[in-house]
Specification:
Shape of chain A: elongated
Structural class of chain A: alpha+beta
Helix content of chain A: 25-40%
Strand order of the largest sheet of chain A: 2-1-7-13-14
Number of strands of chain A: 18
Largest interface: A-B, 39 and 49 residues
Distance between the termini of chain A: 102 Å
Helix content of chain B: over 70%
Distance between the termini of chain B: 18 Å
Oligomer: heterodimer
């Protein structure tokens, strides 16, 4: 009988071996499969089990974490939520993450391998890494000035430091408080529904995700193309441009708001925003050269990340001459984000060189130690330095004595260009007011800020809407804040 | 005969009585170690959850320590030759179970199970002490074999009169207490099987018809066996308890094999088991669903109904990895219902990792192996079969439940011996250990000069 007891014992050993092999299968071999299952709540519990890293403006965090004591323990909180929403986006337990909360999620939630000093060991212990912080390039004063300037009207502001590409302000209005979406309760669901159905679209990031016809502000691009292509060599020479201008191949007559555009020089045409002169200029430069210059400024680039994606601004390259004429004055299919127009202004201010804009200055560990800097951002020669210098001159004139006088700052050299963009069926919609500009303090060697402002104020009196009247003062406030005047 | 007799007598006369080491000191040190391990686990839970040593740590340690010491003293006095590993392993598993239940209690403030489990553990140790004290010789049990089988069947049938709980009719609910009579019945059946087979093993092994390669016993001897098999399937169908019926059947086949040494029995057993399982799996929706869950653990997730208990259990094991999350730091509570009973192993797997799980499996394996060893050392068939039966009971139960929660075999609602919340289970397992101690005491004492080796 002892032999059979041994057999039975061996059978039990076999059962034990099967248990151990199977446990190793579940816990080691296939653990990734189970860990990654969307139905497994452990990932979410771990993710929300500790305070999220912060997004900083200057030295101060604009985010925080609230301990709810629930299973998903920490909820995101925001200081000045509506002000920074276009930059931070939201971090919601129910609806995921957007903008910096999204692109920086690895660092903020502590899963980024960059944060762990010993990745292999952490892999074995599966301990949670420490969370990190994101320090933005934003200028607190500029951001506040832009938000205050818009005062709840529909619109957006983008400001860039021309020499580096650092984004100093990124504002969209009307805005919302991302803190309302942080948790997972009923209040969050109703806030989500309300924000999504709001006709004012408060969650739309108008600064980077909405394109507008740039109107006359696009004349900066057309002028750059004309100067670089040699179509215009003397700013003060008469151009051969009739008023009204018949669009080539059509019977449509293009007119101007004001007088004195007949054969006007580039200087005065720029100063008084003559549509006829620039429409003809675009046709003279040709579709190919216009498209090349627009692309150099950043139009038709679907790959721009700051680090979140920016909606591509468009300049239609398959156009007949009449469409090219309209495209050259920022109408037809020409569309731009406010950030794109700030880039146009920045390229002019920076001697024709454009730095790719960026929003994250550096990534730090919890204690503040830098783990990654912003790195070198690509530099692109958009136009010749001579062309840039002449454009600066033209833009300065606009502010000194043209349509952009309300952007002038005492103690600084300011250049700008107004725009009033028609849109809607038969141009029935209230026009968009644009202003693009740059500013250089008198004691500074180069321009310190380039700004683009768009205001799409449907309620305002149509006659009053103009870049110079509505948008320029907002740009002025932003430039003043950056320059510290 | 005279020659043999004289030789034995001469050998006895020549050799001085061999004194087998009793090893009670080792048992005591191991018990102290087991209690210390349990208390440190208890403290680890508190530190992980609140940052401080839990206020009940001293009380918990003292309670477990006193119980273990009492059991040890009784063994020291009444079963001095018993294998020194049984008691420490039982104390450690029971202590660890209390820690895990206490740890899960922290997540369910409205449902505290650890205090009741401590009361049941005390009752279990009480029963252990009573058995070791009262039962001087395990062979006494053989005399009442029909009493055991009658009570076992009675206990099994009893729950049919009570309403089903969570789809299974295996509980008795009396005055707020719930008892699982099937748990007690399994020990009584093990005793009956051992007694019946010890009495009839010659008839089973050597009589009957030969059919192809199998030697079948006569109907008179076969009758009770078929009855038992039918009963086990009957229990399953009426009470929807796949686990218990599988356990009884496995127990029976193992004991039968050891008693007769006929491989044919295993073949017959397997054929019957497969037939029974297939029939029940097809016909019984409750069981059929368990099998579907086993084959496709993620089917409810794919159907958009969220994870079921088995996939939650697999998530828990996977989350543990090799080293585990640490006591108190896992989320096995997500499994929901039955985390403290059927799925307690998932908490061990998540928080102690594969390492801790393997250690727990090895503790059970050691317990089983020591049981078999005691059986092998005995020379009288009843004791042998009793030890084999009890050890197999533990082994099969561990395999069925651990295999179920880790997705190796279809899930059956059963309690992990000593570890899981469940009064009947803890008390029964203490009784099993008491019987094993009694058997191993006589196995080891027989060499101690009283009888020839």
């Amino acid at each position: 009988m002892a032999r059979y007891i041994r057999h039975a014992c061996a059978f039990c050993a076999l059962l034990l071996a099967a248990l151990l092999v199977n446990a190793a299968r579940v816990q080691v071999v296939q653990s990734r499969l189970y860990d990654d299952s969307p139905a497994n709540r452990r990932g979410a519990i771990a993710r929300y089990g500790r305070p999220r890293g912060d997004i900083l403006v200057g030295d101060e965090p604009v985010t925080g974490s609230v301990d709810t004591g629930e299973q998903l323990r920490y909820e995101r909180s925001y200081k000045d939520g509506p002000l920074y929403a276009p930059v931070t986006g939201f971090a919601s337990q129910s609806y995921g993450t957007t903008f910096l909360e999204h692109t920086g999620d690895g660092v903020l939630s502590g899963t980024d391998p960059m944060l762990t000093p010993l990745p292999l060991w952490s892999g074995v212990t599966r301990g949670p890494g420490r969370v990190g912080n994101l320090v933005t390039t934003l200028h607190r004063g500029a951001q506040q000035a832009a938000y205050r300037g818009l005062a709840g009207r529909k619109g957006a502001v983008a400001a860039i430091e021309p020499e580096t590409g650092r984004i100093l302000a990124l504002v969209s209005s009307p805005s919302y408080d991302p803190g309302e979406l942080s948790g997972n309760g009923e209040a969050v669901a109703s806030a989500w529904a309300r924000l999504n159905h709001d006709p004012e679209k408060p969650m739309l990031n108008r600064a980077v995700r909405q394109t507008y016809p740039p109107g006359s502000t696009f004349k900066v691009v057309t002028a750059a193309a004309a100067l670089d292509a040699g179509v215009v060599t003397d700013l003060d020479a008469h151009t051969d441009s009739p008023d009204p201008y018949r669009l080539p191949g059509t019977t449509t007559r293009l007119t101007n708001e004001g007088d004195g555009c007949d054969d006007a020089s580039l200087r005065s045409a720029f100063e008084w925003s003559c549509n006829t002169v620039f429409a003809k200029l675009g046709v003279d430069v040709g579709a190919k050269n216009m498209a090349a210059t627009a692309a150099a400024f950043g139009f038709n680039d679907a790959g721009l990340r700051i680090p979140f994606a920016v909606a591509p601004s468009t300049f239609d390259t398959r156009v007949d001459r009449a469409q090219l004429a309209l495209s050259s004055i920022g109408q037809y299919n020409t569309r731009a984000t406010p950030l794109q127009m700030a880039m146009v202004s920045a390229a002019v201010a920076n001697g024709g060189q454009l730095r790719t804009p960026y929003l994250v200055e550096r990534t730090t560990r919890h204690g503040g130690e830098t783990v990654a800097g912003s790195g070198a951002h690509p530099l692109r020669q958009v136009m010749s330095p001579a062309t840039a210098a002449r454009l600066k001159e033209l833009m300065t004139d606009v502010v000194r004595e043209g349509t952009g006088r309300r952007a002038a700052l005492r103690g600084a050299l300011v250049g700008g260009k107004t725009g009033t963009a028609q849109h809607g069926v038969g141009n029935s919609g209230a026009p968009y007011a644009w202003f693009v500009s740059w500013a250089q303090a008198d004691d500074s060697p180069q321009p310190q800020v380039a700004v683009a402002v768009v205001v799409e104020d449907a309620s305002a009196n149509r006659g009053e809407i103009s870049g110079g009247g509505v948008a320029a003062p907002i740009a002025r406030g932003v430039m003043r804040a950056v320059l510290g005047l | 005969m005279t020659k043999g007799g004289t030789t034995v007598a001469a050998a006895q006369a020549r050799a001085p009585a061999v004194r087998l080491p009793r090893r009670r000191g080792i048992e005591l040190s191991l018990i102290v170690l087991a209690v210390l391990l349990s208390v440190s686990g208890y403290c680890a839970v508190g530190v992980a959850r609140t940052g401080t040593v839990p206020p009940g740590a001293a009380g918990y340690g003292a309670g477990l320590g006193v119980l273990a010491l009492l059991a040890h003293l009784v063994v020291r006095v009444r079963a001095p030759y018993a294998d020194p590993l049984f008691l420490p392993i039982a104390v450690l598993l029971n202590g660890l179970g209390l820690v895990l239940i206490y740890r899960l209690d922290l997540e369910t403030p409205h449902d505290q199970a650890a205090p009741a489990q401590l009361v049941w553990s005390t009752l279990g140790v009480g029963l252990f002490i009573a058995v070791v004290l009262v039962l001087r010789d395990h062979r006494v049990l053989q005399r009442y074999s029909y009493v055991w089988v009658a009570s076992a069947l009675g206990l099994l049938v009893l729950p049919i009169l009570f309403p089903a709980v969570n789809g299974a009719r295996i509980w008795l609910r009396l005055a707020g207490f719930s008892i699982q009579p099937g748990e007690f019945a399994k020990v009584l059946l093990a005793v009956f099987f051992a007694a019946y087979l010890a009495a009839n093993r010659n008839a089973l092994a050597y009589t009957g018809r030969r059919l192809w390669v199998l030697q079948f016993p006569t109907g008179r001897v076969l009758g009770p066996i078929v009855t038992i098999w039918l009963l086990s399937v009957g229990v399953l169908v009426l009470e929807r308890d796949l686990g218990t019926s599988l356990l009884f059947f496995g127990l029976f086949v193992v004991v039968l094999y050891v008693a007769t040494g006929r491989t044919g029995w295993i073949a017959v057993g397997l054929v019957l088991a497969v037939l029974g399982a297939v029939a029940v799996g097809r016909l019984e929706p409750h069981v059929n669903q368990r099998i579907e869950d086993w084959l496709h653990p993620f089917r409810t997730i794919e159907a958009g109904q969220g994870p079921n208990q088995l996939s939650q259990s697999l998530f828990a094991f996977a989350a543990g990895g090799v080293l585990g999350t640490g006591l108190g730091l896992g989320h096995s509570i997500l499994i929901g219902f039955a985390t403290k009973s059927d799925f307690i192993l998932a908490t061990a797997g998540e928080e102690l990792g594969l390492t801790g799980l393997a250690a727990i499996f090895l503790l059970y394996a050691l317990l089983v192996e020591r049981g078999y060893r005691a059986g092998r050392a005995l020379r009288e068939p009843f004791g042998r079969l009793l030890a084999v039966g009890l050890a197999s009971l533990l082994a099969l139960q561990v395999f069925v439940i651990a295999g179920g929660v880790t997705g190796l075999i279809p899930l059956t609602g059963m309690a992990m011996p000593f570890l899981a919340q469940g009064g009947s289970s803890v008390v029964t397992n203490w009784a099993i250990v008491a019987l094993l101690i009694r058997v191993s005491d006589s196995a080891r004492s027989q060499y101690d000069g009283r009888e020839a080796p």
